[in-house]
Amino acid sequence: MRPGARIAFDVGTARVGVARCDADAILAVPLRTLHRDRYGADLDEAADLVEEHGAVEAVVGLPRHMAGGSSSSTRDARRWARQLASLIAPVPVRLVDERLTTVTAQQALHASGRRAKDFRAVVDQAAAVVILEHALETERRTGSPAGELVMALREGRA
């Protein structure tokens, strides 16, 4: 297992849940929720968090249909990840399958005694924790980083 903190992002249309792990890559914890805007302030905040926590890698959840197909959310997450990669290079960004992470996060929140009406405030962070735990477990099991490496956007491309 590669040492070093990682930051994970659960990218939604309105919010981005953020989680991080410790430098030993053992424990994933919720960090905060970013609010998306059309000016990219969420991406700047995300890049600042990567730097602030000395992350060796950023992990972005890749939403797919249960059968593995893509959607507008898949394309949005890919675009967001490429933009992040441009901001934080040379820190790598990886896309990791996030199927069922929100469901898993909601179940964990419910099991912890949270009321459903309180989920909205933290479900994105909890989903980011699930994404990061999945990435860490995959790396422990296989010896290789999880997901696919993201290439940064070139200037002038969206």
Task: Give a quick precis of the structure.
With 158 residues, the chain is of the alpha/beta class. The chain contains 4 helices and 6 strands; from the N terminus they run βββαβαβααβ.
List keywords for this structure.
22% strand, 4 helices, 6 strands, globular, alpha/beta, 158 residues
Descriptive account of the structure:
The chain has 158 residues and is α/β, with parallel strands linked by helices. The chain has a single domain, classed as YqgF/RNase H-like domain (Nucleotidyltransferase, domain 5). Helix content is 41%, strand content 22%. It has four helices and six strands. The protein has a six-stranded mixed β-sheet with strand order 3-2-1-4-5-6, with helices on both faces. Helix 1 crosses helix 2 and helix 3 packs across helix 4. The protein is globular and about 45 Å long. It starts with 5 loop residues before the first strand and ends in a 9-residue tail after the last strand. The mean pLDDT is 86.
